[in-house]
Specification:
Layout lengths: L2 H10 L2 H13 L2 H7 L4 H15 L4 E3 L4 E3 L1 H28 L7 H8 L20
Helix pairs in contact: 2-3, 2-5, 3-4, 5-6
Length: 133
Amino acid sequence: MSNDSRIHVKGWLRIKHLVLLVTLDESRNLHATSRHMNMSQPAASKMLKDIETFFGMTLFYRQPRHMEITDAGRLLVRYARSILNDTDRLIDDLVSLREGATASSSSARCRARHRCCCPRQSPRSRLGVHSWR
């Protein structure tokens, strides 16, 4: 893939596309996915079609009551999960920085690695956009 193509993918692909793919993989149902993402089913369907058109391959086979993931879909979902996990860690580290800790503090690393056993309040509800100078 050429460098221009890589730049084009990075400029077009959005976090909401990745969330759609991961949620669809988990539910295998476009209606449930659209509800989870607070969008209409036609909008979710169009977003999936746009992603498939952009990459030039089918990611999910549509069945009457569910969807089956393709090999290409599995590959893209695996990377989408990784990117979304990195995004969660970024948010955790930014919240830690704002609260006076260092981004590499052991408690932040523990929370990022062991989400299931380190309960905490979600930072997403508190994270605001600020101008850093």
